[in-house]
């Protein structure tokens, strides 16, 4: 049985990443990278930070429950793919979960409701 695809569409928090090899090494040595990333994260509103932590916990719970039976793909809601998913599946609140053959969608924070949709898709594919 192949894993069920669970796509999660939600706005993501970003930090600047100094990924140039030469610059990155210099900035790491000087300690700028950690300060820069912390400053970027501190600039987000508190409710975004709470939502990100809650979503992270929800993803961990789902991964723990379904292990090898699901494949999770996280999509930034502000990316071109995220906008396409919002339009295609008519989800305009977050987090939005698109499960299985992309016919089932769920918007919200309830792990039990999301689990019921995943279980239904797993039983369909078995």
Explain this structure to me?
There is one protein chain. The chain has 126 residues and is an alpha+beta fold. The chain is built from five helices and four strands; from the N terminus they run βαααβαββα. The chain has one domain (4-13, 47-125): Glutaredoxin (3-Layer(aba) Sandwich), CATH 3.40.30. Helices cover 53% and strands 17% of the residues. The protein has a four-stranded mixed sheet, with helices on both faces. The longest helix is centred in the middle third of the chain and has 21 residues, at 46-66. The protein starts with a strand and ends with a helix. The model has no long low-confidence stretch (mean pLDDT 83).
Task: Describe the protein's topology.
Blueprint: E1 4-10, H1 21-30, H2 32-42, H3 46-66, E2 70-76, H4 80-89, E3 96-99, E4 104-107, H5 111-125
Parallel strand pairs: 1-2
Antiparallel strand pairs: 1-3, 3-4
Keywords, separated by commas or semicolons:
126 residues, alpha+beta, 4 strands, 5 helices, Glutaredoxin
């Amino acid at each position: 049985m192949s894993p069920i695809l669970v796509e999660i569409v939600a706005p993501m928090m970003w930090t600047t990443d100094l990924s140039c090899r030469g610059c990155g090494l210099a900035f790491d040595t000087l300690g700028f990278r950690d300060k820069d990333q912390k400053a970027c994260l501190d600039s987000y509103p508190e409710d975004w930070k709470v939502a990100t932590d809650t979503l992270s916990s929800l993803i961990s719970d789902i991964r723990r429950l379904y292990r090898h039976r699901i494949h999770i793909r996280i999509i930034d809601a502000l990316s071109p793919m995220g906008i396409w998913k919002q339009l295609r599946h008519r989800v305009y609140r977050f987090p939005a979960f698109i499960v299985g053959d992309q016919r089932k969608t769920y918007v919200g924070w309830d792990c039990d409701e999301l689990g019921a949709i995943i279980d239904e898709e797993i039983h369909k594919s078995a």
